[in-house]
Design a protein that fits this description.
The structure is a homodimer. By secondary structure, the first copy, chain A, is α/β, with parallel strands linked by helices. Chain A is 34% helix and 17% strand. In chain A, the strands form four sheets. Chain A has a seven-stranded mixed beta sheet, with helices on both faces. Chain A has a three-stranded antiparallel beta sheet with strand order 11-12-14, covered by helices on one side. In chain A, a hairpin with a 4-residue loop joins strand 6 and strand 7. The model of chain A has no long low-confidence stretch (mean pLDDT 96). The interface between A and B is large, with 66 and 65 residues.
């Protein structure tokens, strides 16, 4: 198979940590040398300095503006990733007299269930596990007396996404790690939203938590100070030293996002990128998608080769064309193309070109 | 008062986040643009890539080499800062049948005591609180049946440091946040050492934990997966996405440290810097130190003006001379000069020059 000549540009389809805009990398790189002409690196400035306080305030204000978050919610920048939020949400929100409902749509919701069940009664409302998590369960019953309903709005590993949230009067807790800033959020239905930064928000090392303030203070268990959301709210996420650089880069990324037109524009672009790739997956006889079409994620597209013996050819071709991070999660195999906000549709076109090239030469 | 002409070089005496070597900033800045010629930013590479795994392995190996850590200890890179370790050490190590001993030498040990007491019986072995934490308590009794003894090896806020660890058969848990890599550690006496990175190890956003493996698994309470040290040991601190960039910069800083001659060389340099500054504090009638001389920290020197009306003059002079981060902690006032490993003695000399200039013009 003749392969196109080596290119320098990389098209990063990694699932997270993942692509961020080039101008964010450029500005972040400069700040590591000299932060805004201060003569100091962003890595050595005091988190109590006014220069830093301004960054924190801008970061919070950009989250509020981009996602239309009202004053009834606190916006926090914490650490420990979604894996920490799996238990921290239950520890802070789940009282011992009621139950919380969980929907199992893959690896991450299963982990959320495992961690939360130490803090109260859980009701597994639905699961697509026995069908290899290839769809989002629908039309299941949700009792009205639940404390909250937890869902993983986008499943990074399996490539499924809720395009419509479950119908219920019960407030929702969303793990939105892989589609935050890619969709609007119906705040009137929300108790809490959390997201590890390293997909659509920024680099690894910071976790966004948006929590309804009136939902806090209703459980009676002991909560260590650092694990109590109420510790961080009056301190503006600076009860202790925050992860300065990950927050700074997230702020730069949100500035970029705002300049591009915000979440509405991103949801249009993400839909267009997903359409381009899924149409090729469906058209090209060498490939097939792994999840039910109506539940396909706009963020992570999972697909297989119909002739698995072509896998090494396809990976070599991708490598030659600058396509990075296309291998599927180690637990599911195949391929996965993550197309977060910062990815231009031109990069998706390169992947589609690679798929067509393979078809032309090996199909 | 005539003030020397404006200089460009900054001398960063901040208590943390704090100074790191210039060559670390240069290399880190480059990696944000292009990590080791990969065509990708360090911020967008997968934490499962071999390029990243090599960084993690080098970081762990440098900790082991620089601090002479044996195989009976695990070296972990976690998040949440020392504030999270305050409860996590007790949660993992303190069993309900025994007590742990704590020494109260300031803000951080008091917080460690507050968080740990939810997990078992604590015995406050000694405190210098009633004397404004101006010394390290000595010659107190330590019962032999304690689970462990917790001390804060260096007190960043008050500027005191244990130059000799307490004598006891009981294993020690050290909060070494502000003097890690500045002193050798007697591992045969240690149960655990923890340190927020943002003083002597790297930028904010990662926490070093070195824990004796045989001390784990002896408590019977429920521990959430992310809070159980045993989760992270077999996963090489990658059970979930690690704080990539803070770990990378810490690794670069440890490379630098090794090249300089390691911890022994640092302890000599730190002693020389401290001697230079404390001798000026003692000699110059305009200044006085705030802690007992034998317990003075080599990392953080706290001092006051004897004529407090000169404070704004001194701060203006420091500003003109490029001296940054010299104001004392908001809870104690006065001045604090933090002289971590990356600070050259030439910067301490600039501070001494400023103190002499003030004496010559206002004394």
């Amino acid at each position: 198979m003749e392969i196109p000549s080596q290119v320098q540009v990389k098209h990063n389809f990694s699932a997270g940590p993942s692509i961020l805009p080039g101008e964010v990398f450029a500005k972040a790189s400069q700040a590591v040398k000299d932060f805004d002409g201060s003569g100091l690196s962003i890595l050595e400035i005091s988190h109590r300095s006014s220069a830093w306080t301004e960054v924190m305030e801008e970061a919070e204000s950009l989250v509020r503006e981009l996602l239309s978050v009202g004053d009834d919610f606190a916006v926090l920048f914490l650490t420990g990733g979604a894996s920490t939020q799996f238990f921290m949400t239950a520890m802070n929100l789940l009282d011992s007299e009621r139950s919380a409902g969980y929907v199992d749509t893959g690896t991450w919701s299963a982990k959320a269930i495992k961690e939360a069940q130490a803090f109260g009664q859980l009701l597994e409302l639905a699961s697509s596990k026995s069908d290899g998590y290839r769809y989002i369960p629908k039309d299941f019953d949700i009792p009205n007396d639940l404390n909250y309903v937890h869902i993983t709005s986008n499943n990074t590993v399996y490539g499924t996404q809720y395009h419509k949230l479950p119908s219920t009067e019960v407030p929702l807790v969303l793990d939105a790690s892989s589609d935050i800033f890619g969709r609007s959020i119906p705040w009137e239905r929300i108790q809490a939203v959390y997201a590890g930064a390293q997909k659509n928000m920024g680099p690894a090392g910071v976790t966004l938590v948006i929590i309804r303030k009136s939902a806090l203070g209703k459980v009676h268990r002991h909560i260590p100070t650092m694990l109590d959301y109420r510790t961080h709210i009056p301190k503006g996420s600076m009860f202790n030293t925050p992860p300065v650089f990950p927050i700074y880069v997230s702020m730069l990324n949100m500035r970029w996002l705002k300049k591009q037109g915000g979440v509405t524009e991103m949801s249009h672009r993400n839909a267009a990128k997903a359409k381009l790739l899924y149409e090729e997956i469906d058209r090209n006889a060498l490939f097939r998608g792994t999840v039910d079409p109506q539940d396909r994620s706009t963020m992570n597209a999972n697909f297989l080769l119909t002739k698995s013996e072509l896998e090494s050819d396809f990976l070599a071709l991708c490598d030659q064309m600058g396509i990075v991070g296309i291998k599927g999660h180690r637990s599911v195999g195949g391929f996965r193309a993550s197309m977060y906000n910062a990815m231009d549709i031109a990069s998706v076109q390169v992947l589609v070109d690679a798929m067509r090239y393979l078809e032309d030469h090996k199909g």
